[in-house]
Amino acid sequence: MATVAAALDFLVDRLPTPIGELLVVADAAGRLRAVDWADYEHRLNDLLRTLYRGREVRLRPAADPGGASTAFAAYFAGDLAAIDSLPVETGGTAFQKAVWQALRSIPCGRTITYRALAERAGRPAAIRAAGHANGSNPLSVVLPCHRVIGTDGTLTGYGGGLERKRWLLRHEGALRGPAAPGASG
After folding, report:
1. Of the four, 15, 36, 100, 150, which is 20 to 30 A from 157 by CA?
2. What value does the mean pLDDT take over residues 171-184?
């Protein structure tokens, strides 16, 4: 008789930010499981189903799960280090996890290329695979996929949209100009 995997119960908070409502998903132990923008909530749900294949994922509204919402509010208010030590837990393959760990090692205010990301993940020839793993990152902002740019220095895709990427990079000091919604650069 096959056993049925237990459902995963996660807590979700909705946090207003200068660039849109942020969904913050954590487990009961306070570890972040996912972060995404409210206008991409369907993608968040799909990603959770993919990462935790074979398990039902249930999201229950909660205020400030594990203190993560407070940390994000501080980050958006200018305390850029506020999210650096948030505990995280993700599903995913070993390679995805290596890429996501490499993302977390990118210093605030800096950017790297996809090639450098692949190198940091231990597979320098896997540039496209690193890009794909970057795009599957369940913990936007905390695992700062917005800090990865094209080889020529251009701002390439970001799941939350290029305007948010531009804002985040300006907020962190990696781009010049004010970190205002709708600003171009």
Report:
1. 15
2. 66
